[in-house]
Structures are given as structure tokens and as C-alpha cells.
Design a protein that fits this description.
The protein contains seven helices and five strands. By secondary structure, the protein is α/β, with parallel strands linked by helices. It has one domain: Rossmann fold (3-Layer(aba) Sandwich). Helix 3 runs parallel beside helix 4. The protein starts with a strand and ends with a helix. The relative contact order is 0.22.
Length: about 180
Amino acid sequence: MILLLNGAFGIGKTTVARVLVARVPNAVLFDPEMIGLVLQRGLRLLGRTVADFQDLPSWRRLTIAGLRMARLGSRNVIVPMAFSDTGILDEVRTGISRFEPRLVHVCLVAPVEEVHRRLRTRGADPTRHAWEFRRAAECCAAHERDVFAHHVGALDRTPDQLAQEILSVIRHEADRSA
């Protein structure tokens, strides 16, 4: 299975993903953000910039290829990533579906004020890190839509509680497809 763990910047995706990796047998965490950061740095060396690496077709292709490789080595792959553009999300999901029939998409949601509070707790400053705060707000607004799969409320819940609910969603999906 590949689990797309979606949610706004600062909502706790990576923390919850680590809890899930510890609880799901033969699971590995795959962070496509690393691919994006490498691509952004490479473009900077060439004198080009890109505001959001998800806009790069190469990021989407490399992410799908990386997920395929991760899936070859592990039965379960947990992917924390902030998808808010439905076109990009659909492209990645379609790419995954070519090699993995079991794809579960869960989206952590919380009010934007809570997400901004969490960003500040991590040390992000709204002035110096304006891009993160702006993207968090965009994600919170976008993730209200049904296309962003199973909504899991992240307000006033621990990573363990969130992981438990996500495991329930995974079991429900498995029962539905059986």
C-alpha cells in the first residue's frame, strides 16, 4: 500500500507519518520534498528559480519513480506531502496507480489559525517565512473540498490519536476493496 498523507504546511504530517511507520508492518517513510529541494537547488545553480517545486514536471515524474522504487523494497510506503493543486494530486495518484493498486489518500485538516500557531511553535516567523504561512492558508482552504479524500481532524489531537484514526481508515479501505 502507498499512503498519501496530505495536509497543510505545519499540520503535523511528518510527525504522524513517523508514528505510522512504527506501527505499520514493513513500512517506510518517503518524503518527496527532498526531491523538490534538490531540484530547486539545481535550478538555482543554473540561474533559474521556481516558487513551488510541485510545479516542475520533473518533480512529479521523479516522485512517482521514487515511490515505485520505495514500494519495490517495502510493502508499505507512507508519504507526507502537502498537495493542494488537484491537477498535480491527480497526476501523482494516476502515476502511482500504474504500479500500485492499493493507494490510500488521507488529509489532515485543522483551522488555519491552528496551523499558523503550529508553524510559529516550530520557530517559523510570519515575516521571514511568509511563503510557508501563505501556503498553509492556501492548503487549509483547498483541503476543505471532498476531492482531498478522507478528512482527519487534527485539532486538539496527538500524533498517536491521528495515527490510530488513519489506521482505521486504512482497514476500512482494505475491507471495502476485498
